[in-house]
Amino acid sequence: MSPERFAALWRSLLPIGRDGRDGGYLRRSWGPADLECREWFVEEALDRDLTLDPDGNGNLFAWWGDPTAGDAVVTGSHLDSVPHGGAYDGPLGVVSALLAVDELRERGRKPRRPIGLAVFTEEEGARFGVACLGSRLLTGAIDPARARALTDRDGLTLADAMTKAGHEPLDLGADPERLGRIGAFVELHIEQGRALTDLDAPVGVGSAIWPHGRWRMEFTGEANHAGTTRTADRRDPMLAFAAAVLAANEEAHRQGAHATIGRVEVTPNATNAIASSVAAWLDARAASAEALSSLVAAVRERINERAAAVGTGFAMIAESESPIVEFDSGLRDRIAARLGGAPVLPTGAGHDAGVLSAHVPTAMLFVRNPTGVSHAPTEYATDADCAAGVTALADTLEELAC
Ligand code: HGY
Ligand code: MN
Ligand code: MN
Ligand code: MN
């Protein structure tokens, strides 16, 4: 695959969903940009004579060969983004899947196993709060009634958003028939880190996904006047919230883990009123389950101490937790060998591949990200490395399906 060929298809998707601020994206699942991206995918798939087969969860599948034959090799990723996110996280895997089909056809290959392309919905969980929602629904990892009731920040439920987009929310749910068709899943993704840059390698193979989770934290205090309430009389939930941010940062640093509080909602959120309550979300990740639970426990303990000291309430509720994912070692080693000994590396980022790995042999390919930055407009990979990623994905599909 040439960088020019990659760039031509890449540029056709690039303008969709730009949020108009320094190159960031807002592709919210079931929102206008997401629907436009999905139309783009359908058009590209039909241009390649692939057979479209969407499931009831909003995931798109496109097939080269008869999927009912089973034991398919499926590749793909997601098209939704975090708010003001980058262009590559998700879409690179989808564009690469389309181009890998082109590459195999130009090599004259006729797969002996069906090859499927997949686009999973709401991978970021940025709209409805649960990451990998589409692949969790497909695999039965989340109850469809709970999913239907998830709300976005405007109070719209997933069911409402689907209905507005012309989809039937009652179709949500596990789809053992479609899942049963998949014999192996390979997701190509921009690396969200600098390991490949440091190794000076354009492509790597995934070994594991760190265990990670999201916790909603609720801090409750007493609203009062900013100008007339003495400090000693305050029950200000912002103090315990501030302790949470510092505890997350310090405990993660101490344990070599990652903890982020990037989202907060203050009530009433007025300059001259002491907050009555604060909601915030902890995103915590670590190399092992033990390290993750000790990180979360340490953060929780420090917040409890601070909340008690300032007389405010505190609750911490797990919203989603993902255990460590060790990718199928046979698949991993076979792919790394086919790719001429490509480096093998873990990731701290969650992926649909992590959800599917509980059901089918799964692998990931990573494409070098020169700065390692992700979930931000500066997320970037060179056309040459992206083209190398397509070639690696085509080699992988050829190795597994042809
Ligand atoms: O948050 C993640 O780890 C992924 O990028 N959705
Ligand atoms: Mn992603
Ligand atoms: Mn992401
Ligand atoms: Mn007043």
TrEMBL record:
One of its GO terms (molecular function) is metal ion binding. InterPro entries: Amidase_Cbmase, Bact_exopeptidase_dim_dom, Peptidase_M20, Peptidase_M20_dimer. Keywords: Hydrolase, Metal-binding, Zinc. Allantoate binds at R214, N272, R285. It comes from Planosporangium flavigriseum. CDD domains: M20_bAS. Signal peptide: none annotated. Residues 214-308 form the Peptidase M20 dimerisation domain. Belongs to the peptidase M20 family. Its cofactor is Zn(2+). The keyword Transit peptide does not apply. The keyword Hydrolase applies. This is Zn-dependent hydrolase. Zn(2+) 1 binds at H78, D89, H189. The lineage of its organism: Bacteria, Bacillati, Actinomycetota, Actinomycetes, Micromonosporales. Binds 2 Zn(2+) ions per subunit. Zn(2+) 2 binds at D89, E124, H375.
